[in-house]
Automatic annotation (TrEMBL):
Organism: freshwater metagenome
Signal peptide location: none
A GO BP annotation: lipid A biosynthetic process
Chain ranges of the Carrier domain: 15-95
GO MF assignments: acyl binding; acyl carrier activity
Keyword list, A-Z: Phosphopantetheine, Phosphoprotein
One GO CC term, this protein: cytosol
UniProt key word Phosphoprotein: yes
Protein name, as recorded: Unannotated protein
InterPro entries: ACP (IPR003231), ACP-like_sf (IPR036736), PP-bd_ACP (IPR009081)
Length: 98
């Protein structure tokens, strides 16, 4: 899809990143978005396995590539993301760095 079609999508603030992560996780895990908080642990609270996290990364990369050219989440960084807050902070920092 040409980048011009997504010019209406502006930069995300931290809350916007959280809502995006929450929406993606709810879809992947087939749970209500409201049950996902920033303090939720992927494994203990959400019972998300490594496949679910890979799906989350792919979904975020796809969505955010429309806003930030070349947005990627590095595989080696994935093991450091234990909670929703970790993921939101990581994605937001990468977006801020541009």
């Amino acid at each position: 899809m040409p980048a011009e079609t997504h010019t209406s999508k502006g930069p995300l603030d931290r809350q916007g990143v959280f809502l995006l992560v929450q929406e993606q996780l709810a879809d992947i895990l087939e749970i209500e978005p409201g049950t996902i908080s920033e303090g939720s642990s992927f494994q203990e609270d959400l019972d998300a396995d490594s496949l679910a996290l890979i799906e989350l990364v792919e979904g975020l990369e796809e969505e955010l590539a429309e806003r930030t050219v070349g947005f990627r989440i590095d595989d080696e960084d994935l093991e450091d993301l234990k909670t929703v807050r970790d993921a939101v902070d990581y994605v937001f920092a990468k977006l801020e760095a541009g």
